[in-house]
Design brief:
Structural class: mainly alpha
Oligomer: single chain
Helix content: 55-70%
Low-confidence stretches: none
CATH architecture of the domain at 68-165: Up-down Bundle
Largest sheet: none
Number of helices: 9
Shape: globular
Order of helices and strands: HHHHHHHHH
Mean pLDDT: 90
């Protein structure tokens, strides 16, 4: 028996793809992701959504001015806030590989404020939490973010938070499970 709830909407069967679904599938599979899974696969029910989301996702994941460590920090915070196990499973490893400390990652998993020695990580954390929790950033935090990471990075950060909110909502609403059986859930609040 699976420890994950039954997925509400599975990816369409590739044998039934129409021409546009096949085109989008092939474009995603041939890109840096190397495959079509999770929310991207679910979006193939609406190939134009999949195409547009794929374009935005590629930009957010690979082309922003944010350092990879800062991007992964924002992504795991989003996954944590939404309780998105799939997102957490995928990006926890990327975050550690990018250089986030295990202590920072674990604090985020526990829904605690990490201790930061890097002002850029701290401001990305604070902006991400504020954007998700209170739906805005106050003037003092905005000024600190501009000073520490700059306006171009702040624009990219907000775009990345929006994209990974879309990902997390797709995962949660359609109950997209982690890859395979995945590890035991890590984000459950006790």
């Amino acid at each position: 028996m699976s420890r994950w709830p039954e997925q509400r909407l599975s990816a369409p069967d590739p044998a039934t793809y129409d021409a546009r679904q096949q085109e989008i599938h092939d474009a995603i599979a041939s890109g840096p992701r190397g495959g079509v899974r999770g929310p991207l696969a679910v979006w193939l029910h609406r190939p134009e959504l999949a195409a547009k989301a794929q374009d935005l996702g590629r930009y957010c994941r690979y082309d922003t001015v944010l350092d990879e460590k800062l991007s992964e920090l924002a992504i795991i915070i989003t996954g944590r806030i939404f309780g998105s196990e799939y997102e957490w499973q995928i990006h926890k490893g990327f975050a550690l590989k990018a250089g986030l400390s295990p202590e920072v990652v674990e604090a985020i998993r526990l829904n605690q404020r990490p201790v930061f020695d890097d002002p850029a990580q701290e401001v990305v954390h604070d902006v991400a939490r504020a954007a998700h929790e209170v739906r805005h950033v106050d003037d003092a935090l905005y000024a600190r973010a501009v000073e520490v990471i700059g306006e171009p990075a702040l624009v990219d950060l907000i775009g990345l938070l929006g994209y990974y909110t879309l990902i997390s909502l797709t995962i949660n609403v359609f109950k997209v499970p982690p890859l395979g059986e995945g590890p035991a859930p890590e984000l459950q609040d006790d």
